[in-house]
Write a structure and sequence with these properties.
The complex is a heterodimer of chains A (about 325) and B (about 375).
Chain A lengths: L3 H27 L7 H22 L7 H29 L4 H27 L6 E2 L1 H7 L10 H7 L4 H19 L1 H11 L1 H6 L4 H27 L3 E2 L7 H11 L4 H20 L6 H7 L2 H16 L20
Antiparallel strand pairs in A: 1-2
Chain B lengths: L8 E5 L5 H27 L3 H13 L2 H26 L7 H18 L6 H30 L3 H23 L29 H20 L1 H11 L1 H6 L4 H28 L10 H11 L4 H24 L6 H21 E5 L3 H7 L1
Antiparallel strand pairs in B: 1-2
Helix pairs in contact in B: 1-13, 2-12, 3-7, 3-8, 3-10, 3-11, 3-12, 4-5, 4-6, 4-10, 4-11, 5-6, 5-10, 7-8, 8-10, 11-12, 12-13
The chains are: A mainly alpha (about 325), B mainly alpha (about 375).
Chain lengths: ~325, ~375
């Protein structure tokens, strides 16, 4: 029998980094910036959190750690790290009007390199035999579950067995969806992404909106990296472990048609597809598992095609996605 | 009196910059980037920058073997970048180079494994070439068909196709793995060497370099002096104009992407048949993405791309030498490449735009 109670929690913990990434990327894209640097930013967010946690764990060696600081310091590091990446992207694409695809790819190269470099250096500092850093003490604070989750059987297992960052991801996604859909700020943001010239004529500050949306998006995406290391991976950083989740997050943005609230459920679906191969009774046939891993991407492609064929206006990517805005252009 | 003040900096678009000025700006950016990299490296290692650059030069040019590896890496990167150029010129963002190379390589490997004992080597190489080219072309054609027919977003489509290709390769790697359970294919036809591309003058990498040099020249003429090249640039500048003058836009998109994918397939063939003689999921090694930057930095000019791919490969090889000498982690090269790319990307602004600073009121009046 398919173990559904075992499957869902694992799909959910897989989904949270994707959810953070896709929420961040959605608001970035809504402002007209196609940030292909998200995979790199998530690496930077993750490693910055690790550096913060590492410094704190080193500073109170032996002494007991303060729970609040153990969570706050890595989070602060993570947010600052990914904010800097967001600012860099904005500086290049908004202020200097560079090509967004190229900038994004360069950021991914840089970010992944940054993560692996500092990861590798920290591993060397600790002098451990394993190619990884273990921050299990900090991780305990991040993955602390609700005390009564254990007692509620399958209900507790499916809904209450996650660390606080998981719930934060869902809250952020719904808040972003609300802001985009229902507030004036969201309307302005969408106007900037659809047609910046019109928005500019209406007195909306294009540069400010693009900067704020992209930086906020980067910080949210960075938290995805933090969640991955601290909660999912139990505080163990090893190089390249984060894998291609960043690209999957970008796929998720398309899959949900730029709606963070849909993304909450879609990310769980993606998370499920991502680990489906572990649950399929393939026996000794390892090769088929590789084909299962293809599923999220194939599904995204199908959605992309279906959306473009239906030609429904509100399902399309933001009109000026990927195009730099220059007021004096015609 | 007019209270509102002019902004401090007013940005205007430049008409055109003479090419020597443009290359001057780019050169300055590279110099600035190298200085920034040296400062960062000094901070990390405490060595003086001259030692660092000496190490980089040694890493790239130090021995004959290193020179050949440099040439080989440049050739492959350039080949993929050349493949992307026609698509980019048409404003079709083909980010699927990685996947197209992988599929091309997979086709070559499939021929080597399945037909290795049935065909003579010469015939097999011909079949491999055709198969790789066809596979790469088909992989690029799929997004192109949907783009041409329904306007499906090609950036995201081609991006996703990379991962489909990766998983497909992973699947076949397990099917063909030898020895069983090792999780990799190993050198194909190691004893017989059937299906290995011939070595010219005993040099393993010379054939690849020659093939890519040929493609570079052909691509230069194709883009600049052929009707197809002209149609591509018209479609890229304005699709409506292209339709108006009677260019069949859909056909141009399909034809160009066939070409783009085919050359990526060749790159896959060169990697699998020419140098590696095996296939892994990382055979392209991110070069599909690096090639995007190579092509863009050279403004899609095939001759300029020789220099930009040289620059990127040189940095990568140099950085890896630094990391071994000074005991840094090998990812350090990615950081340096990233820093240099940021500088070059940023400098394009100063080529395309002019900054006009606010003049003091007195001067303004005098000018008027």
């Amino acid at each position: 029998m398919f173990d559904i109670v075992g499957f869902i929690p694992r799909a959910v913990v897989q989904s949270i980094p994707l959810l953070y990434g896709s929420t961040g990327e959605t608001i970035t894209e809504k402002a007209g910036n196609l940030n292909l640097g998200i995979p790199g930013i998530m690496y930077v967010g993750g490693i910055s959190g690790v550096i913060g946690a590492f410094l704190y764990e080193q500073s109170c060696k032996g002494a007991s750690m303060n729970g609040f600081l153990a969570v706050a310091i890595p989070m602060l590091f993570c947010l600052v790290g990914s904010l800097l990446m967001g600012l860099l992207y904005c500086l290049l694409t908004v202020t200097l009007r560079a090509n967004q695809n190229v900038t994004g790819l360069a950021m991914t190269t840089f970010g992944v390199g940054f993560g692996n470099f500092f990861g590798g250096s920290l591993i060397k500092l600790t002098g451990s035999d394993m190619p990884s850093i273990t921050l299990s003490q900090t991780s305990l604070f991040f993955s602390r579950k609700l005390p009564f989750a254990e007692r509620l059987g399958w209900f507790g297992k499916i809904f209450l067995s996650y660390g606080f960052l998981a719930y934060l991801a869902i809250v952020i996604a719904f808040v972003c969806a609300y802001i985009l859909k229902r507030t004036r700020t969201g309307l302005h943001l969408r106007a900037v992404g659809e047609n910046p010239a019109t928005a500019d004529a209406a007195g909306i500050n294009i540069t400010r909106h693009k900067y704020i949306a992209t930086c906020a998006g980067s910080m949210i995406a960075g938290l995805g990296g933090l969640y991955y290391v601290m909660d999912y991976a139990c505080g163990i950083w090893s190089n390249d472990a984060f894998g291609d989740r960043g690209w999957l997050a970008i796929a998720l943005v398309i899959f949900t048609l730029w709606r963070p609230n849909v993304s909450v459920f879609a990310s769980i679906l993606f998370g499920g597809l991502y680990i489906l191969y572990l649950f399929m009774p393939t026996g000794t046939n390892l090769a088929v598992k590789e084909l299962y891993k293809m599923l999220p991407y194939v599904v995204t492609i199908l959605v992309l095609i279906a959306v473009s064929m239906r030609r429904k206006k509100e399902n399309h990517p933001p009109e000026s996605l990927g195009v730099a805005y220059f007021r004096e252009d015609r | 009196m007019n209270k509102s003040r002019a902004p401090l900096i007013h940005i205007t678009k430049r008409k055109t910059m003479p090419w020597y000025c443009a290359w001057g700006v780019r050169g300055a950016a590279i110099v600035a980037a190298l200085i920034a990299c040296a400062v960062v490296t000094m901070f990390m290692t405490g060595e003086n920058p001259i030692a660092i650059y000496a190490a980089m030069l040694k890493g790239a040019f130090g021995t004959t073997r290193k020179l050949w590896i440099l040439g080989q890496n440049i050739a492959i990167l350039l080949c993929i970048a050349l493949a992307l150029v026609p698509a980019f010129k048409m404003r079709f963002w083909n980010l699927g180079g990685e996947g197209q190379v992988l599929i091309g390589g997979l086709a070559a490997a499939a021929c080597m494994i399945c037909l290795g004992n049935r065909l003579p080597s010469g015939l097999l190489i011909a079949v491999m070439t055709l198969a790789s080219i066809a596979a790469g072309a088909v992989w690029a054609l799929i997004p192109a068909v949907f783009k041409a027919k329904w306007g499906t977003n090609e950036t995201l489509f081609t991006l996703m196709m990379n991962y489909v290709a990766t998983q497909l390769v992973a699947y076949f790697v397990i099917i063909w793995e030898s020895p069983k359970g090792s999780g990799k294919i190993g050198i194909i036809n190691q004893t017989t060497g059937i299906g290995w591309l011939p070595q010219i003058g005993g040099q393993k990498y010379l054939l690849n370099i020659l093939v890519v040099a040929m493609i570079t020249v052909i691509m230069y003429f194709y883009m600049n002096y052929s009707k197809h090249g002209y149609e591509i640039s018209v479609v890229g500048e304005s699709e409506r104009t292209a339709r108006y003058v009677g260019i069949k836009v859909e056909r141009v998109i399909l034809r160009t992407l066939l070409l783009s994918g085919a050359i990526c397939g060749v790159a896959g063939l060169l990697l699998v048949g020419g140098t590696d003689h095996t296939i892994t999921t990382t055979v392209a090694g991110g070069r599909g993405f690096t090639a995007v930057m190579v092509a863009w930095l050279a403004k899609f000019n095939p001759v300029g791309m020789v220099f930009t791919s040289f620059l990127i490969v040189f940095l990568g090889r140099g950085a890896s030498e630094i990391t071994t000498i000074f005991g840094l982690n090998h990812s350090y090269g990615d950081i340096l490449t990233g820093i240099i790319l940021f500088f070059i990307i940023g400098c394009e602004f100063f080529i395309n735009y002019r900054l006009n600073f606010r003049k003091s009121a007195g001067k303004e009046a005098a000018n008027v």
